[in-house]
Design a protein that fits this description.
Blueprint (H helix, E strand, L loop, with lengths): L2 E4 L4 E4 L7 E6 L10 H19 L3 E6 L6 H9 L4 H18 L15 H13 L3 E4 L2 E4 L15 H6 L15 E6 L14 E3 L1 H13 L2 E8 L3 H16 L5 E8 L2 E3 L2 E2 L10 H7 L2 H9 L7 E3 L1 H27 L11 H19 L4 H6 L1 H17 L6 H18 L5 H5 L2 H20 L3 H13 L2 E6 L2 E6 L1
Parallel strand pairs: 3-4, 3-9, 9-10, 11-13
Antiparallel strand pairs: 1-2, 5-6, 6-7, 7-8, 11-12, 14-15
The structure holds zinc ion.
Zinc ion binds next to loops.
Amino acid sequence: MLHIYNTLTRRKEEFQPLTEGKVSIYCCGITPYNYAHIGNARPAVFWDVVRRYLKAIGYKVRYVQNFTDIDDKIIQRAKEENTTAEEIADRYIKIYMDTLEALNIWAADVYPKVSENMDAITEMIKHLVVEGYAYPLEGDVYYSVEKFKDYGKLSGRRLEDMEAGARVEVDDRKYNPMDFALWKAAKPGEPSWDSPWGKGRPGWHIECSALSMKYLGESFDMHGGGSDLIFPHHENEIAQSEAYIGHSDGFARYWLHNGFITIKEEKMSKSLGNVFLVHELLKRYSGEVIRYFILGAQYRSPLDFSDERVAEAQSAYKRLVNAKKTAEDLLENADGSAAGPETAKALLEKAKEAKKAFFEAMDDDFNTALAIGCLFPLIKEFNTYAGDVKSRGVVFDREGFRTAFDIFTEMTSILGILEKEEAGQADDALVEGLMGVLLSIRQDARAEKNWTLSDKIRDELKNIGIAIEDTPQGVNWKKL
Ligand SMILES: [Zn+2]
């Protein structure tokens, strides 16, 4: 039975779907103004595993993840690059989608963009104004937190305490310093849309209330995001949505929040200069290794990132890859199938035990860290059994072994690993080393004006799908 820690109730609860056999999920997406960093990859990988697991235990899943494609950061970036906000958002959405693919993440059912859903957003704001939860103010519209009696229920904060410690800029026009913008009046040179309050654009929080309800209905099962979103973003989403639907028995039922990424136990932040971008990491590690690393911590725990930690994950991951190869090799090449089920009996027992422990771990608030641990005793058995067949004359029980291997694959598919063969097998450090050797030979050849050799190296690399590029800073290479 699946149990989930619900931020709203602050305890683990047995999961009960709204509709038998179905699960609807909304997860806050990215603001596309830059490359995705490891902190963006974590929720993406986690929610992918949640979906895979729910499917494995028999649910049909609908998953919606938005793109905040209207935002100060996008507008700022567009100004810096002398282009439009739309162009910036499109560019980084595309890059993000490529990153998701590299991380072996299933596509969402819908990726709604704010810019394409302005009607749903303005409708919701209109309704909140009519119901007295929001008030227009010189082209802006604010949400009145005092009108919503449950304000603070998700984050466990009290409005009085928030006001006392309010760090929000003092704006005397607002009823309460914690009131937040649902609509912002247009500023010159910024993208804007028509509304009953004049031209403008939506505030950040309203989009997730409007988009989740538009695509999943007034009530849905799970809402996700990073723990940094609990306050104010998700608190405000609840305030908007429950006020909109008119009762507190709706909107998201289970709130799941993933923990921070730390870098060598320090918080990751731009100001500390320790932000790791996923597309950079993908040059050094396969998507599945990054995935495996992320899943090595239960989602609510902090995840400490460092090169050493990822390298450790990589070597553990390779053991899984090798075991898979050993098993496949055995299935393909070993003789014997008539030995009966007895010979692989112990192995099969181990596989069933591993599966039981794996599902128990996943049922306990998606504890992927424990679930991954269930794979290793099993691969040890695979290797022992393969040794017995190959060297000690044990007759191969094909059927028994295949059943055990299928159980293993069932678990790895839920984790979304060992699916891209080349990704699992790529020895990236070795490739990096070999490229270093080749490029230094080519540099020597160029220094000696041996153009024939230097061109040959470049052309032959191109033939195997590697481009090299001479730049003032040195030679770069990339896979074509
Ligand atoms: Zn959101």
